[in-house]
Structure formats: C-alpha cells, structure tokens
Amino acid sequence: MLEERTVHFDNDLQIEAYRFCGIMQKFPNHFHEYYVIGFIESGQRRLTCKNKEYIINTGDLICFNPLDNHACEQIDNKTLDYRCLNIKPEIMRKVTKEITGKDYLPQFKTPVAYLSEQTSILHNLHQMIMNELPNDEKQETFYIFIKQLIDEYTEPPNEADSGAKTEMIKNLCQYIEAHYQERITLDDLARMANMNKYSLVRAFTRVRGITPYRYLQTIRINEAKKLLEQGVPPLDAALYSGFGDQSHFSHFFMEFIGLTPKQYQYFFTKLDEQSTIRKD
Q1: The whole model's pTM is what?
Q2: Where does the record place the HTH araC/xylS-type domain (predicted)?
Q3: How far apart are CA 274 and CA 10, in angstroms?
Q4: Half-sphere CA count of 114, side-chain side, radius 13 A
Q5: Domains of the chain
Q6: Strand 52-56 vs strand 70-74: parallel, antiparallel, or unpaired?
C-alpha cells in the first residue's frame, strides 16, 4: 500500500505543515509543546484527548493546545489522510495579540469540532504553504483562519482554564524537564513525591493525563526535535536527549512523530523545497 508523508516548514509564517496520506499508524498517548490544528481528509479514527474519547471522521477539525495529551488509532480498517499545522506558542501569542489586542495564549475548549466549516479555509491555507505561494496571500489567509478559530472555539482570555495541577505533580514535571538527560526511574519520582509507585502513576495520570514515563519520553522527543532541527546528527541527538541508544530513540521518534529522525531532519535541511517521503 502506498504511503505518503509530507512536511514543509514555512519560513514566512514560521509554522510547520504536515500531510499524511494512506497511513495506518497508531499514535500513543503523548503531547506537544505547540498547537496542533488539523483535519481529517479521509478515514475514521478513535481519538483520546485528556482522558476523553472521540470518534473523528472526514471533515472534522482537530485542535490541540500545547501539552494536551492525546492518542489515536484507526478503527475502520481503512487508511488515514490528514493535514495539520503546528504552531509554536510564541507565534500563536504574537498573532493573537495582533488580532485581539490582548497578550495571551488562546485555549481551545474542545479538541474536536465535527464537520467544521473552518476545514475549508484550513485546507486552502495548508495548500498555499505546500505550494510556497507568496507571503501576503498566505499571511492574510492565516490571520483570517486564526481569527475564526479564536471566535468560534476558544475560551475568553479571562476564563482560560489553568487546570487542576497539584503542586506535587507540578514539581515532578519541573524535575523531569530539568533532568531528562539523566536516568529517571519511577522509584526516584515516588520517593520525591513520598508516595508508592502505584499511587504516583494514578495521581500523575489524573493531573497530567499521561503517565510519568510517557511524560519523560515526550520531553526527550521534543528536545531531540530541536537538536535535529539544528543539524545535530541523530545519534548525538539521541544521547543528548537522554536515550540510551539510537535504536531506542528511533523507535520512540517514529511512534510519536510519524517520521524517522533522519526523515524529520531532512525536512529542516531542505527548507527551500517541498519534500515528500513515499514507501510501499
């Protein structure tokens, strides 16, 4: 079966555009440090986001806030066609301030908007990025799209939900983020929290929506992405981000991102051309 994975980084807008066609890959529970806004072109999937389950179909809009944990898998035995934009928080904050006059990060109220009218403009914007159209047209469409999303799907700035994080889990997250290059065990975290391992996993998952181990691996993958974007060889990126070996690193990277480390790095060394990977 022909599979196609396309990634393009737009230097004008400073955002990533992904397109996956004909894939069957299951993505485990993980999160990103950036916004993910996409839609299903074809296929049906079971999506879990922040411990709530959704069935998503063709035409459904997907909006993940930074750190929203999510997982998805195919359920109709057919392949998935999917497009998305990845937007870093600093870019979203800048655009939001220009649109609303307020300095804040918008929070999407729900990760799924069924049969959203916004998928049409997202498709057009995504195609402009892939076709490398002039900046003025892309930027105008991008701002119109974000304005529609803010108006339709986000909380007012004074009602943004700060979450139910406990101080203990927050401290553990900060420790993981500071020491991800080191060997961190569940025993270590349990001692820090003064809890048994089972209680820690249950509390951490309830607050963060993801297990401590998955949180650690996601932090490592996100750090590895930054290194790969800077041209660091995959083996070095694996070691610098806390993975014991390249094989282990490659497995998690493919599982979380849908690309191998070399494929991901290739797209960032070829910013001036659209790059497509096909495999049988």
Answers
A1: 0.69
A2: 170-267
A3: 10
A4: 7
A5: 3-159 (2.60.120.810), 167-269 (1.10.10.60)
A6: unpaired
